[in-house]
Amino acid sequence: MPIYRYRCSRCGTEFRELRGVQDRALVRCPGCGASEVTRLLPRFGVVYKGSGFYTTDYRRARSGGASSDGATDGE
After folding, report:
1. If you ran DSSP here, which 8-state letter would residue 55 be given?
2. What is the CA radius of gyration of the chain?
3. Residue 15 burial (CB < 10 Å; 0-12/13-18/19+)?
4. pLDDT digits (tens, 9 = 90+) for 25-64
5. Angstrom distance (rounded) from CA 55 to CA 12
């Protein structure tokens, strides 16, 4: 069963509660007993590993601004 985070709309208390996915019972604030609570988004961290996450991993630097086909301007 997942643990959900809630915030009370009346007193602002943040709390966590273990609830089943199919659980339909109202969640009440442990501080004031109000049923006006909002479920908060879960906090999680993102770790990027491997290549391809930075622009330097897939973008090649241009050399001098000349075109690569060997053509020159007006000659």
Report:
1. H
2. 28
3. middle
4. 899 999 999 999 999 998 888 877 777 667 666 666 666 5
5. 42
Q: Catalogue the long-range contacts made by 57-64 (C-beta closer than 8 Å, 24 or more residues apart).
A: none
Residues 6+ positions from 10 with CB-CB distance below 8 Å: 29, 32, 34, 36
The domain limits of the chain are 1-41
pTM of this structure: 0.55
The CATH number of the domain covering residues in 1-41? 2.20.28
